[in-house]
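Tutorial sheet, problem 5. The two components below are modelled jointly, 507 residues in total.
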Amino acid sequence: MKIEFNAFFIAIGAHKAMDLGIKGEKEFPKALEAIGFLKDVALGNHHVPGKQIVVIGGGNVAIDAARTGLRLGAAKVTIAYRRSRNQMPADIEEVEQAMEEGIEFSFLTIPREILGKDGRITGLDCIKAELVQKEGSDRLMPVPILGADFIIEADVVISAIGQYLDDKGMEAFSQMNWSRRGTIEVNHASMETAMPGVFAAGDAVSGPATVIEAIGGGKRAAEAIDRYLNHIPQPRMPKIPVRHHREPPVEMTATRKMTLKHPTMPMLNVDRRRTTFQQVELGYDEESVRKEAGRCLRCDICRRCGKCIEVCRDKMGIDALRFGYMDFDHPAETDFRMTEKKCITCGACAANCENKAMVLEEKDGRRHLKLCGTLLTSQVIQYCEACGAFLPSAEYFNFIARKTGDMVKRTEARLLCNNCLRLFSAKTNVETPLA
Amino acid sequence: MQFQKGNKIKVFRKSEDEAWESYMDDFIGLHGFVTDPDTSINDPDALIEVSLEEKGTHRLPQDCLERITKPK
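Model answer (structure tokens):
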């Protein structure tokens, strides 16, 4: 084999379903595993497996299997999951859509045995569980409640509790190392295994993960194979993505930013969803897309470091910035409109912003404070009466006057820059000597 | 520790997991976000996807990560 090929790339995925480890699992032909079931349907087998389907698991695969079963014509589909809804690894949208379509959920349910006779399933024997906090851990574990057993009636049981790599037929790659998770061990910079010239990527390396990661791994492996064939040394660590271009932010007022609502996704009618395999989410129209894009907080520009808030509140003592969303773990109220009420356009926030997300612009006789294109406040620029130099806004002067009290009394009637103020004060002091 | 999507994290030490590679030593001390907590939630052995500041996105073992809360 090695005579003809100089490099190998293994991307066989992780398709083998994990066993439930319960009685009856191997006895009935209608005890299916989700991946095989979904594959058969995708290949054109549109026969309904049974009238009452129970899917065991709480991930996206379990939801897919349940919704597919419903579309094939099952009268009742139940998802049995051993933890509660909050702990379900499936995407929230998927769970909500499944509920809308009429799929039943049985949470805190641990399957014990698949019941049946004469090769036919009659039900799934389950026991109710409660979530218990284990000592020294913040994870909640499902623990069976003694005596709380019950039966879910079913004629099909689909297991969707996870997949792993099927290593059948991989004997030729004897020098390859396997992780204790049953995946292929690689150097993630080059995706090369311990066997020279053999590369691997995708779920076979990461375990069940996302398509994006698999594509990324494949790309890294392709580049590494090219280097390998050209005898170029492999890098020590994976390539770090570099930003080549930054899209300018969409300019809008704080009020518009705060009142833009998340557009509702047009959905296929529930009756059609239950009976056809048509696309459920029909997609946004252009106006909705623009609205949705307008809600973007531009995390590529603003890293939510919160320095602007700290400077404004703690150093300047103004507290004009209500960006509660910048606190990652305890998000508080966010209101961009509040800035206009307190801001003095001192520019301390903009000066301390490392990424230039917060900017102070002077345009058309006004000073604008913007956060990623959102206009937070706009104040009139003032000019020195004597020399015409730019001066801070009236709000800024008022703030300084409050802080300095009597010190500016002599000049408060006139709008002067620092230089002219010094000249004026000197002149006044000379003309009116102290008694 | 149970991580949720969007948690701000810090790579605070070297992991003892076999998935830890030598280049990951450079990540110690870096901050980032959890982008994909886990395909089977609550599994402390699972690798989770984190996006590290200026170092890209990686799957790391959970024992090298800690959640960071900004001081009030």
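Marking note: Chain B has a mean pLDDT of 85. Full credit if you identified this.
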